[in-house]
Amino acid sequence: MSINLIAVKNQKWKTIKDSDGNPVNDSDGNPIKVIDCECQWSHLGDNTQEWISFTADPNDTEKHGKDLYNAFLNGDHGLIANE
Description:
- It contains one helix and three strands; from the N terminus they run βββα.
- It has 83 residues and is α+β, with helices and mostly antiparallel strands.
- It has one domain.
- A three-stranded antiparallel β-sheet has the order 1-2-3.
- The longest helix is centred in the last third of the chain and has 11 residues.
- The chain is elongated, with a radius of gyration of 14 Å.
């Protein structure tokens, strides 16, 4: 199945935290961050569908999640709000 982004809004950085609320760091000691947003996806309908919460993650197991994260970093969808 092909999953394509129809639209995205409300993108905001989020730091991954452990069960104690502490930031989770990568192997270089930097906090791991993802991007929360709201999306409309082609496999769920057209641009009249409800907005769905989504987290764009560079380590997503699905291609569309990785692609959206990289598109955000590339500036394709505007600014990403701070936490």
